[in-house]
Amino acid sequence: MRARLLMIVAVLVVAGMFSSSGVGVPPEVGASSEAGPWYYRQQLAWGSCAGDVFFVRSAECARLAVPLDYAKPDGARVSLGVLRHRVERADRRIGALVVSPDGPGDSGMSLAAGVAYQLAAEPLRDRFDLVGFDARGVGASRPLVACLPDQALDALRALPAEPTAEPTVDSSAEVVAVGELLADGCAKDTELLSHVGTRETVRDLDVLRAALGEEKLSYFGRSYGTRVGAAYASAFPGRVRAMVLDGSVHPTAPPVEQLRAQLTALTAAFTAYATSCARRPDCPVGTDPAVAARELDDLLARAPYPVGDRELSTRDIAYLVTSQLYNSSSWPVLSQLLADLEHGDAGKLLELADRILDRQADGSYAAGGLDVRLAVDCVDGEFPADPVATLTDLRTSAGPGGTWRLPAVDVEALVCPHWLVPPVAEPITGAPDPPPVLVMATTGDAATPYANGVAMAERLGADLVTYEGYRHTVYLASDDCVNRTGHDYLVSLRTPPEHTRCPGL
Question: Would you tell me how many other CB atoms lie within 10 Å of the CB of residue 91?
């Protein structure tokens, strides 16, 4: 879920991306393809995607109409953007494979376009239409979730990386004030925000399955997409053909316990990075891994770093450190960023922090990133009412050192206690006769810890594939063992041997 910090989005979904239909205009209801309410009887009107918005020019786009509130099917509607890359040879086509991204808040359309572009996905392109959709509030879907005030996001970035390190009346008040400022910006959108959680996304996914003409769903979800997939498999077990879940959220743990587990995983990833970095005499956190966290804390202690008329904050640095720990291939980038910081050159770091947080050149923030993440996470799980106590507890349980860790996990704990929409979780229960699911988990995953994958496989009665390495999500990356296992399963429904392990690069 927090892998959004890793994603510096290279593909922008613009408002006028469809040349075949206007933004916000749902498709007409076509001939019945499945019995039931109107939303199960619609046909997708595919057309070209405007401009070079996506990697693959051959992609087709459409809109899917769904009720804002499934309890009021004749009321307001939501329009979801859908992208498809069709298989070239119809005689080899198995069906549609729906891909679901990290997030919440990331674009499924962009993920589908990216998967179609990847060399590693060639066996899938050859057998499946690759399909992605922008969930409620995201990207090309309408209405957008766009409610966080720019000044509130600036205040969040200025908040100390460890605001509860030494709790005082003033520091505690600042924590509460920033959380309230972020939540208050979304107070006017409660009708929409009441219907953007995983509960609705699961229903939307089944409507998409029907609109694609698929009797059963083939699905690949990563990170937050595993929450959607697992909840779908629990709600509609008889409608799953095949499902790969990569980088799982924990299926049952309360939100704060998931944050606590991620702090531990981040610490382990930083230790591995420091050990690797220490082999170089110019390592910016020193040649002794035992004191590397202290060296990094010293760099953060010098913040804010001036950059023109702006400043690079401790929280900005923390976001950058976290984003580069999610994949061991990014560790050299982290070393370079920290070396720049050590020499007082903070300009590049501020630019990257702005990109991660979707800050525009005019000082505004793009909609649909953190807005959607909070809108979904705050209704998907219940957070304790006292954010100061929660942050203090998380900091204490994380142990000494590592000032950079808390900002990776604390935003929901700051904001969700003030959210005006009550939580309504979509349970991941498994099924008495579980559908075929393949879970992939990475031993050094700093975003969704390995234990999450073990728990998810157990909960769903799924097969588990273990990747040994440090990265967040691995399927369709560069590992032949993982890719071969996933391809064989999705194409031929062949499950791997029990306890399959793939050694990292």
Answer: 5
- 162-171, Cβ contacts within 8 angstroms, sequence gap of 24 or more: 162/395, 162/403, 162/406, 163/391, 164/388, 164/391, 164/392, 164/395, 165/395, 165/403, 167/388, 167/392
Report d(CA 312, CA 158) in Å as an integer.
9
Which residue out of 102, 445, 463, 479 is catalytically annotated?
445
* Residue of 390, 387, 394 lying closest to 180 (CA atoms): 387
Tokens of 466: 């273990």
pTM as predicted: 0.92
Instruction: Return all residues near 295 (Cβ < 8 A) that are at least 6 apart.
Output: 284, 285, 286
195, 418, 472, 487: which one is catalytic? 472
The correct answer on CATH 3.40.50 for the domain covering 2-128+217-248+429-503 is: yes
Average pLDDT over residues 100-106: 94
Tokens of 23: 């933004």
List, by residue range, all CATH 3.40.50 domains of the chain.
2-128+217-248+429-503
345 has catalytic annotation: no
The residue annotated as part of the active site, out of 223, 313, 328, 335, is 223
In three state form, how does the secondary structure of 89-158 look? CHHHCCEEEEEECCCCCCCHHHHHHHHHHCHHHHHHHCCEEEEEECCCECCCCECECCCCCHHHHHHHHH
Is 223 assigned a catalytic role?
Answer: yes
**pLDDT tens for residues 30-55?**
333 456 799 999 999 999 886 555 66
CA distance 194 to 24: 19
Residues 6+ apart with CB under 8 A from 137: 105, 143, 144, 145, 192, 196, 368, 371, 372, 375
Residue with tokens 């698929």: 214
Give the residue from 67, 76, 19, 24 showing the smallest Cα distance to 42.
67
